[in-house]
Amino acid sequence: MIKQYIKQSIQMLKENRLVSVISIAGTAISIAMIMVVVLVFQIQFASFYPENNRDRMMYVDGGTEVKSSNGWNRGNMSPEAVKECFYSLEIPEAVSGYAMQLKPLSIPGKRMYKGYQIKYTDTGFWKVFSFRFLIGKPFTQADFDSGIPQAVVSESVARKLYGTTDVVGKIVIIDLAAYTVCGVVKDVSRAADTAFGDVWVPYTTDRILMTNTSSENMAGWFSTCLLAKDRHDFDAIRNELLKQIERYNGMKQDAKINFFENPITRFDIAIGSIGQRKVDVKDYLLETGSLLLFLLLVPALNLLGVTQSAVQKRRAEMGVRKAFGATYGVLVRQILYENSVITLIGGLVGLLLSLLLLPVCKDFLLQSRDTALSGDMIFQPVVFFLALLFSLLLNLLSAGIPAIRIARQKIVISLKDGE
User: Fold this and answer.
1) Are 335 and 329 in contact (CB under 8 A)?
2) DSSP state of 83
């Protein structure tokens, strides 16, 4: 019986092509709009390679302030501050300090001038993030402690420099300094803003980063990221950090370091609740939820009139069917099946449209340009099915209510088309 209803629904779509196209387009636009908005938010907040544990991560990036009698310095911290305040923490699962610089890469015998993002970091970086090594391995703690120039490069950088990913043991020259490649990782999207880089090296190999500090060696170039064992540990980590800050400040004569309300979570970054500018979560969810509801309702409400009008035009048809023995339930179910088919087709079109719109519009929808998008970043079945369910409910109500009313009318009234 259901198969017969579906065949009849498809036939009705062919007979009423204009109404069908309008209904499918309205449903598709409604779903595509909400999918794009949610996908943009997801790229900023949800977990994907290599930031697979964003729900357990915390950050201190540009939220450091060092005060002294000579003034104050606001920006990042020194390697010493990273070591004393963060490496000493016991509650987090892993901690990493890092700095990013744009520098040219070359290979022996061939000087190049193109700049690449060099991330100066530590061994904790490989514990915080889940990099996929195509060949080789990360630099070791011994390499870091001794300042041995080892480098992990991305797949695309390895191919550009040597034409292959089999480059372990080969030399890469970073701003005239020679590094030995110890590993090659799968490329990282710019959307993974903390993990992103073209080359990753021990920050102990760069003398300028280690010595270019100020404010009693508290201020510098470094940010930090922390991986909690459990997201319920965030408050405990903040409290432990406060104790380490107090201990560290006690070691100084005049300067004092402060991290504002850091470390912050990925959710804080996604909603703009950073540093001293806090956004209430309830207000954000209310505002975002209202926007998503608006994006769903505007196209859907415009379809109500079209759908109701299409059902009203079938009043005489339903009267004839009732005269030949069709029951109330049969008439209503057919209308609902037809609109379900329209919604499903519109939903699939909307999903494809959203997947096409996001890559095309990503330069102004996302903060980082040239952001590579992967399947695990942009496809979220739960979001799609919720949007589809909402559209299906609206379409069924817009068609079901007039269908129920007409199915209850007397056969004579239906045959006369309500006159």
Assistant:
1) no
2) I
Give the full edge-to-edge strand order of the sheet including 71-77. 219-220, 71-77, 64-68, 256-258
Strand-pair partners of 58: 226, 265
Per-residue pLDDT, averaged over 17-25, amounts to 72
- DSSP class of residue 116 equals E
Place 29 in a pLDDT band, splitting at 50, 70 and 90: confident
Q: Say if CB 108 and CB 172 are below 8 A apart.
A: no
CB 139 within 8 A of CB 202: yes
Which two three-digit tokens encode residue 120? Answer: 């100066």
Which amino acid belongs to residue 87?
Y
Tokens (6 digits) for 333: 């179910």
At residue 296, the pLDDT reads 60
Rounded to whole angstroms, how far apart are CA atoms 255 and 179? 36
Residue with tokens 């969810």: 285
Instruction: Indicate if the pLDDT at residue 412 is higher than 60.
Output: yes
pLDDT band for position 72 (50/70/90)? Answer: confident
pTM: predicted TM-score of the whole model, two decimal places: 0.73
Distances (CA, A) of 16 to 21, 67, 100, 393: 9, 73, 59, 22
226: left (phi over 0), alpha (psi -120 to 50) or beta: beta
- Angle at which helix 281-312 crosses helix 17-45, to 10 degrees, equals 170
Q: Residue 203 carries which DSSP code? A: G
Which amino acid is residue 236, in one-letter code?
A
Structure tokens at 386: 């919720």
Distance CA 330, CA 324 (A): 12
Question: Where does the pLDDT of residue 364 fall: very low under 50, low under 70, confident under 90, or very high at 90 and above?
Answer: very low
108: left (phi over 0), alpha (psi -120 to 50) or beta: beta
Percent of the chain with pLDDT over 90: 41
- CA-to-CA separations, 88 to 116, 262, 267, in angstroms, rounded: 32, 17, 25
- Choose the weakest-confidence range: 83-97, 146-160, 259-273: 259-273
pLDDT tens readout for residues 60-70: 987 788 887 77
